Amino acid sequence: MATLTTRTTTSGLIALGLAGAVAFLALWTLLALSGVVQKQFLPTPLGVLQRFVELTQSPFVGHTLQQHLLSSLGRFGMGFGLAAVIGVSLGLAMGWFRWLDEIVTPFFDAVRFIAPIAWVPFAALWFGTGIGGPTLIIFAGAFPPALINAYRGAKFVDVRLLEAARMLGTPGWKIVTHVLLPASVPSIVAGLRISAGLGWQSLVGAELIVASSGIGYLMVKGQASISTATVMAGMVAIGLVGVLIDVILRRVEAGIHRRRGRGE
């Protein structure tokens, strides 16, 4: 009975989601066809879809949509990868070494409230339109959540596990790698989900200003040529890739929770 109820609830939520999407597209179509807004500035959903398909087949500002996305994903991979490696490592170390926590926290608390887009002037001055500028901005957006969740994961590890390891004479570095890190993994992965979302958003902001390719650059050039359909097609691509990244990380997170559940 409980399973049937759960399925019914899930089906109802899916139906509501689809109804909302259909209503949104219908309202958009009616507004676009009404003439209240010029077609050049508000194309229909079908017009955006057609432009999306065209961009996958014909180059725009030198590249197809897929090539622009690959360029963006390359920058995202570098910035997010650096943020994940440095943020998780430093967060775990801060959770383990109190003296390091005392040193880093005041500086980190000041820097983490600076919006990633605020780093754009420095990125442009230091790196120009090369890959370094967008990487810096993505790193600025993705780094804080990675560090904070790794730190929390390390701080809230079951004290009994740590005490048992110490009683058995386990060296400090082995406690970190064999106890602290595995116990912190769920918190780390949850942080990386947030980190990836903020990093992807930061990437688009970076490419609007300090890039010569990528999905953000495509949107800038679409705006310059007064092609709203191109800009909207870029937004659709950004949303689809963002959802795909989140789905992958959700599955990783769910897999980790399943393994921990079996282990317990």
Structure description:
This protein has 264 residues and is mainly α. The chain has two domains: 1-37; 40-263, MetI-like fold (Orthogonal Bundle), CATH 1.10.3720.10. 81% of the residues lie in helices and 0% in strands. The protein contains ten helices and no strands. It has helices at residues 2-34, 45-57, 65-96, 98-111, 120-127, 132-155, 159-167, 172-207, 215-224, 228-263. Helix 3 (65-96) packs across helix 4, helix 5 crosses helix 6 (132-155) and helix 6 (132-155) runs antiparallel to helix 8. The radius of gyration is 23 Å and the shape is globular. The two termini are 27 Å apart. 31% of the residues are buried. The model has no long low-confidence stretch (mean pLDDT 83).
Count of DSSP helices? 10
Percentage beta strand:
under 5%
> End-to-end span in angstroms?
27 Å
How would a crystallographer describe the biggest sheet? none
Fourth-tier CATH superfamily name of the largest domain: MetI-like
DSSP strand tally: 0
Number of domains: 2
Q: Please tell me the CATH architecture of the largest domain by its name.
A: Orthogonal Bundle
Average the pLDDT over all residues and give the rounded result: 83
Radius of gyration: 23 Å
Helix-strand makeup class:
mainly alpha
CATH class label of the largest domain: Mainly Alpha
Order of helices and strands: HHHHHHHHHH
Runs in which pLDDT lies below 50 for 5 or more consecutive residues are none
Q: Helical proportion?
A: over 70%
